[in-house]
Write a structure and sequence with these properties.
The structure is a single chain. This protein is an alpha/beta fold and 367 residues long. The protein has helices spanning 17-20, 45-53, 57-68, 75-85, 105-118, 142-145, 147-150, 173-182, 245-259, 284-301, 303-332, 337-346, 352-362, and strands at residues 93-99, 123-129, 155-161, 187-191, 208-213, 234-237, 273-275. The chain has a 7-stranded parallel beta sheet with strand order 3-2-4-1-5-6-7, sandwiched between helices. Helix 2 (45-53) crosses helix 3 (57-68), helix 3 runs antiparallel to helix 8 (173-182) and helix 12 runs antiparallel to helix 13.
């Protein structure tokens, strides 16, 4: 029997021994490993806080994931992280940006963020994406609409799901702002979901509230009704380019005239109405100049400090409300009373206000 290994077909018949010895016979691929993927070793709170303060983007992303977690096991770690980083936060300009769907919020932020980064500013963008009421999922695709900014070394973009929260922001937007400021970002842009005039919650989280408007989207005066525009610090008509430039300018003049009928809340700052194009970049610098002007006036009059204090109290109130809701859910879940009352309300036997009073009494939370 010939025990000499067979020669591969692609090796010449007259190949010498030297060449033949360099031919390595094919070997079977190793069997795939079924060992579970090793997770990153848990970081101590002090280590994670130090890494975030040092500007580690990966640590910042992990810190945001930690505070966004709904797991009870992560709550103590998240609280500890915030306790360590809060004293190092507060130095950024916080700007909330909202507008109806299609107003070009993401494109506007991309253009504004690029200009700020090129001026040496460090920009963090907190983009809130709507969550499906059916699947509870979110696309989180805002980075694809901020292509230039997402690649800039001085920018950080964090999309977060709204999680069913009202007001156009995510459940932990306030905490995320703290982490970004502690990481050294001096401008924080909060992009809301874009659901219309109900997006007022973000007003209590930022220093300057910017509303993007569209020309030719219906009656321009419709948006001047008591609502979200009453809280705006700056209004900007976007997409003022090409064939839409004249319509945008006309809409800007119309909004500007209509705003005179809405007295400023403090009688001092009259919200300006500007026009810009996020595509061409025209007017973007003028918008930021108004933001800086508004911030400077607020500091001179002491309104900036008062606004930050109001933000802190609103944060406290939101957390207390969330804690009471969780405590009520936990307390009412230990008995069948909740199911019985819900059945009676559903059948129309018991009025909802009386049912709510009984449930709160049973949970020890009756007023």
């Amino acid at each position: 029997m010939n025990t000499e290994p067979s020669r591969p077909d692609w090796v010449p018949a007259d190949a010498g021994q030297e060449f033949a010895t360099r031919v390595v016979p094919a070997q079977a691929a190793p069997a795939p490993s079924h060992r579970p993927h090793r997770r990153r070793k848990a970081e101590k709170g002090a280590d994670l806080a130090a890494a975030i303060r040092a500007g580690d983007r990966g640590a910042l992303a992990r810190g945001i994931t930690l505070i966004e977690s709904r797991a009870a096991a992560h709550r103590a770690e998240a609280d500890d992280l915030l306790h360590r980083l809060t004293p190092h936060a507060g130095g950024a300009v916080r700007v909330g940006i909202t507008g109806a769907p299609g107003a070009g919020k993401s494109t506007f932020i991309d253009a504004l963020g690029i200009q700020l980064c090129e001026a040496g500013r460090r920009v963090a963008v907190l983009s809130v994406d709507p969550s499906s009421p059916v699947t509870h999922g979110s696309i989180l695709g805002d980075k694809t609409r901020m292509e230039r900014l997402s690649r800039h070394p001085l920018a950080f973009i964090r999309p977060s799901p709204s999680g069913g929260e009202l007001g156009g922001v995510a459940r932990r937007t306030r905490e995320t702002i703290v982490l970004c400021e502690a990481a050294g970002f001096d401008v924080v842009l909060v992009e809301t979901v874009g659901v219309g005039q109900s997006e007022v919650l973000v007003r209590g989280m930022v220093d300057c509230f910017l509303v993007l408007l569209l020309a030719g989207a219906g009656d321009e005066l419709q948006g001047i009704k008591k609502g979200i525009l009453e809280l705006a610090d700056i209004l900007t008509v976007n997409k003022a380019d090409g064939d839409n430039r004249n319509r945008a300018e006309a809409a800007r003049r119309e909004f500007s005239r209509a705003l005179h009928y809405l007295a400023p809340a403090d009688g001092a700052w009259q919200p300006p109405v500007l026009a810009c194009s996020a595509v061409t970049g025209d007017g973007i610098a003028a918008v930021w100049a108004e933001v800086e002007k508004f911030m400077a006036q607020g500091r001179e009059r002491g309104e900036f400090t008062a606004r930050r204090q109001a933000q802190a109290l609103a944060w406290l109130d939101a957390l207390v409300t969330e804690g009471l809701r969780e405590a009520y859910t936990k307390a009412s879940g230990r008995s069948t009373l909740a199911a019985e009352i819900e059945a009676q309300v559903r059948q129309g036997v018991l009025p909802a206000p009386e049912g709510a009073r009984r449930l709160l009494q049973a949970a020890g939370m009756a007023p």
